[in-house]
Design goal:
CATH topology of the largest domain: Rossmann fold
CATH architecture of the largest domain: 3-Layer(aba) Sandwich
Number of strands: 21
Radius of gyration: 27 Å
Structural class: alpha/beta
CATH superfamily of the largest domain: P-loop containing nucleotide triphosphate hydrolases
Distance between the termini: 50 Å
Helix content: 25-40%
Number of domains: 3
Largest sheet: 8 strands, mixed
CATH class of the largest domain: Alpha Beta
Number of helices: 19
Strand content: 15-25%
């Protein structure tokens, strides 16, 4: 498939004077070191080439990367919206390293929805540090990795990647430059309350306040005009990531930035909010606004240089991913909703705390609460997919279930996978039903759960709950080994959809937690579970239903066209979704078996 590439157009006015950084800057300083720094500050690609190295070679930026770097450097509120694989995370690392070196006293803070994502940006900085002797010379103390952050002191500057978590653990941090990666996944409340607070104080607040006071006195005494006042050098917030749905806060931020730039808006934040009709959750709070402080770089895959990305992989993604997901991941388009069997808007509407749902939010859990029952769903497809586990919390009075835990791993042996099941059963001791897919290793899991050689002290064998032959054996009779027949798959998917639409299945929502504590192992586990939950929702929204030749409904990730099967690698990841499907089935059948009253055809709040 031949890719139609976008034309590259540089809108440069005819009267614009092109500045040659070397010719214009040469000879302006007696000190050659000062001159070199001045040239670097006025030619960032030159600075990247001579200060940084990548894979033992001077770092060479493509033209579009130079444009990204220039916007990040000169705009206070830039948006970097780029295709998957365009290298935006790498460019954030390059920008962070150069900013810390060339702007002494910078406090660069990197945050994302999960600690692992913010560490991805820092890992590029770490690799630049390893490859670049000049960069290393600026960092005599080296990279530090305590449990609650990773950071690098660069002269008087510092680069720090933080676990955003629920926001409370990092309140009080101050930054001159905030880099947010995968902005769409960051909880908007945490961003507004906590992340914006990082940049609320000037880098040198006393000096900034003194300068403003003296200038206002000079204006009052007639020694200068208001137009001669120095432009305030505000702290920076970088919004970076791939596109998301139009009901996501990233789309609102994108539209707001675009409106400010297109209309060349200047004025107080109150005036701009009124003019643009912004709602409270997307209102601007930057004080005086100037459109020149805003910038957007939007780079779909068609706008990248030819051969920069593997065109076969692009073709594979286009034909195997749902259209809306491909638009978000590769074309920088914000679709109105997911186009799979399970709508993202429906999941939002069954997430208490989300504006589409309302209600009181609830968090994920890393261990069970006394007095509550839980069910577990297991997709054991260990080799081709992840081994995935999902745990739901039961509320028999309201007949609702809460999605509180998700886990996945890959490439582990069956004994290690079953040991993980046992560990989770210790953390969630009142699991009343375990549903596991019979195919892809389900029988192996069942055998190991019953084999006395793999039982540790105090553990019991786990038997099928509905097999007469198993009732004579001592142990826990809570296992349901499910045959994924076409009818079961159809009924389970429609049942899961009904649970969502009627708000019987509820999803967790990340909010600010005001109980302060260190980012310890428990917080790290919570961060990982939130990541797994996000991936689970993505997988669920990718599921499409298609009829087979015999008229049977087929629920799966989109398949390759017959003409391309065997030539491209199929994009398939649905293990977390399958674990959720099994867990929801386990909850419904458990409710309907007599231990609990029959489930009514109404929803409600847990």
């Amino acid at each position: 498939m031949k890719i139609h590439r976008l034309p590259i157009v540089y809108d440069i006015p005819k009267d614009y004077n092109i500045i040659n950084a070397f010719h214009e800057r040469h000879g302006k300083f007696d000190n050659p070191y000062h001159e070199f720094v001045d040239i670097c500050l006025n030619n960032l690609s030159f600075a990247a080439h001579y200060l940084l190295r990548w894979q033992d070679k001077p770092l060479r930026l493509a033209p579009f990367q130079s444009v990204i770097l220039d916007m990040l450097w000169h705009k206070t509120f830039p948006i970097l919206l780029a295709s998957r694989g365009a290298g935006k995370t790498f460019m954030l690392g390059v920008y962070g390293a150069l900013r810390a070196m060339l702007t002494p006293g910078s406090k660069v803070v990197i945050v994302a929805a999960s600690f692992r994502q913010s560490k991805l940006v820092f890992e590029y900085i770490e690799r630049l540090y390893d490859y670049s002797p000049i960069f290393r010379a600026c960092c005599p103390k080296g990279i530090k990795k305590p449990s609650d952050s990773v950071y690098l002191e660069v002269g008087s500057s510092i680069i720090r990647a933080l676990p955003l978590g629920n926001g409370e653990k990092i309140r009080g941090i101050r930054a001159t430059h905030i880099i947010t990666d995968e902005f769409a996944s960051i909880n908007p409340e945490i961003f507004q309350v906590v992340v914006r607070g990082f940049a609320s104080v000037a880098s040198d607040p006393i000096a900034a306040a003194t300068k403003t006071h003296l200038e206002r006195e000079a204006i009052r005494d007639g020694h200068m005009t208001i137009d001669q006042m120095s432009a305030p050098q505000g702290n920076q917030i970088v919004y970076s990531g791939t596109a998301n749905y139009q009901f996501n806060h990233f789309y609102k931020a994108f539209l707001t930035h675009k409106a400010i730039i297109d209309n060349k808006i200047c004025g107080s934040s109150e005036e701009v909010n009124d003019k643009l009709g912004l709602e409270e959750d997307s209102a601007l709070s930057e004080g005086y606004l100037d459109y020149k402080d805003y910038g957007i770089v939007r780079i779909p895959y068609q706008g990248l240089p030819e051969s920069y990305m593997d065109e076969k992989q692009i073709a594979q993604a286009r034909v195997t991913m749902p259209k809306s997901l491909f638009q978000m991941e590769y074309e920088c388009v914000f679709p109105t909703d997911s186009d799979g069997f399970f709508k993202k808007s429906t999941i939002n509407a069954t997430t208490p705390g989300h504006k589409s749902c309302g209600g009181v939010p609830f968090p994920i859990e890393t261990k069970g609460q006394p007095g509550f029952e839980y069910v577990m769903g297991i997709d054991p497809a260990r080799k081709t997919d992840n081994f995935a586990i999902n745990i739901l919390k039961l509320y028999p009075v309201s007949q609702t279930i809460r999605n509180v835990f998700c886990y996945s791993m890959r490439g582990k042996s069956w004994p290690k996978a079953v040991r993980k099941i046992r560990e989770l059963m210790e953390l969630f001791p009142n699991i009343v039903r375990i549903a596991v897919d019979a195919g892809g290793g389900g029988s192996a899991v069942e055998d190991l759960l019953q084999d006395s050689k793999f039982l540790e002290l105090g553990e019991l064998a786990i038997w099928r709950h509905d097999e007469e032959d198993h009732k004579k054996f001592a142990g826990l009779h809570i296992l349901d080994v499910v045959d994924f027949s076409p009818r079961w798959i159809r009924d389970a998917n429609y049942g899961l959809a009904a649970d969502m639409e009627n708000k019987r299945l509820l999803f967790p929502y990340r909010t600010i937690d005001f109980e302060s504590q260190d980012f310890d192992e428990v917080e790290t586990l919570k961060d990982d579970v939130w990541y797994e939950m996000d991936e689970q929702v993505k997988e669920t929204c990718m599921i499409v239903v298609t009829p087979t030749k015999t008229g049977v409904q087929h629920f799966d990730i989109p398949e390759l066209p017959a003409s391309q099967q065997g030539t491209l690698k199929t994009y398939k990841r649905k293990d977390r979704y399958s674990a959720l499907l099994l867990a929801a089935y386990a909850a419904r059948t458990y409710f309907l078996e007599g231990q609990r009253t029959a489930m009514p055809n109404i929803g409600g709040w847990a």
